[in-house]
Amino acid sequence: MSLVIDVVDLVSRMVRIPSINPRGRPEPAETPMAEFVADWARAHGMHAELREVRDGRYNVVVTLPGDGPETLLLETHLDTVEVDGMSVPAHEPDVRAGLLYGRGACDAKGPLAVFLAAMADLAAAGPRPYTVVLVGVVDEEHLYRGVVALRGYGLDPVGAIVGEPTSLRLVTAHKGCMRCRITTRGPGGHSSEPWGKTNAIAFAAEVVDHLAGEHAARLDEDVRPLVGPPSLAVTMIEGGSGPNVLPDRAVITIDRRTVAGEDPHEVWAALRAELVRRWPEGLEVAEPHVVDYALQTDPDLPLVREFSGALAAAELDPGVYGVGHGTDASKIALDAVPCVVFGPGSIAQAHMPDEYVPVADLHTARSVLVDVLRRPLSRGGSR
């Protein structure tokens, strides 16, 4: 393994580059990160190119040619969440007591640096069983535009490793989601005369009680291996225009987490039908504004077996795990590409005011990944 590349320094350099997701604003937010990755990769003997997704926001594609005809995909994201309320400097990385602090250190500049360092190690080591392509994508924290753009790149990989903080565990399953808004309506009027009138906020409260009670109880019965049952949470509510005005409208936003075998659009249609049957007047269920699919990768596939072997060789837990949050892996898996998720740091530290990644995790993840990338893989499917 190359001793020249300092993965801690690489993460630190990335943390210094702001790449906050613009949440739909037409800003090239991740482009400086993409340019940094491309320049670093070229300096270490790899081919790199930028591909625009929209609004001057670029994915970066780094290629390390191999000796065989197949390609393995490494994918992670360039963007971070906002920095408001951080208790540590967002873009001034600091290493203390074995932890590297800063926005993105854990999610996901740590995994990105590990990917790059492992590829550089391979480049210096000689023969490689297949081509390795790393894609750093935009917009993972919002509408997934970066990973969706991969479909036009013609990569056709035998498998994909998606970089996210997993506490060095191998994740083969995660939930998807369906998010939509539910609007309740009433006639409005003066608050001094509420009798006989539908109060839109009180109406919304009835809907919330139903979703948190009877509906949630049914979901709890559908327990799945690795990820548990689907779930539904009411995450936002708005309504009312003044303290002395009966509200004529209230809106709740729900986050429905899906499991393998559930189509988010079908989940929405079933929920809408259920609510409209119960409240045929004054209720609207808008079409989903966010959908994502669940991931479930067959643990018997070569990618999973070889990755588990590399973890065991490093004296780490070789088991497979599921998580409740989503990743880009589910979008890649829609094209029948076997996907796993792996990386340094814990999801519990992602997006936190004092976001950090353990330095030891960075070194361990790099060693494990180099081992995985040296192992021969054959094509398999996902389910």
UniProtKB/TrEMBL annotation:
It holds the Pfam family Peptidase_M20. Keywords: Hydrolase, Metal-binding. Signal peptide: none annotated. Residues 172-279 form the Peptidase M20 dimerisation domain. InterPro entries: Bact_exopeptidase_dim_dom, Peptidase_M20, Peptidase_M20_dimer, Peptidase_M20A. Coiled coil: none annotated. SUPFAM superfamilies: Bacterial exopeptidase dimerisation domain (SSF55031), Zn-dependent exopeptidases (SSF53187). Gene3D superfamilies: 3.30.70.360, Zn peptidases. It comes from the Bacteria. This is M20/M25/M40 family metallo-hydrolase. It comes from Nocardiopsis mangrovi. The lineage of its organism: Bacteria, Bacillati, Actinomycetota, Actinomycetes, Streptosporangiales.
